[in-house]
Amino acid sequence: MKKLIKLMVLAGAAVAAVVLTSCGCCTGEAKAPALKPLPKFQELPTIHYGK
User: What spatial distance separates the first Cα and last Cα of the chain, rounded to whole Å?
Assistant: First the structure.
């Protein structure tokens, strides 16, 4: 039973650490800028080498 409680406490601490540090609200860091859209590529013609 003690191992189960210890495991639950460790898992809870890990989840809390991820939640608190990933949002940036506790560290005071600015939010990351949004990603740019991917470029639009033109479709290349298919080459059939067997002909």
Answer: 72
Tell me how far apart the alpha carbons of residues 44 and 46 are, in angstroms, rounded to a whole number. Answer: 6
Model confidence over 7-50: pLDDT tens digits?
A: 999 999 998 887 777 665 656 677 788 999 999 999 988 888 98
Residues 6+ apart with CB under 8 A from 26: 20
The secondary element (H helix, E strand) that includes residue 19 is helix 2-22
Please count the CA atoms within 13 angstroms of the CA of 38 that sit on its side-chain side. 3
Residue 39 makes CB contacts below 8 A (sequence gap 6+) with: none
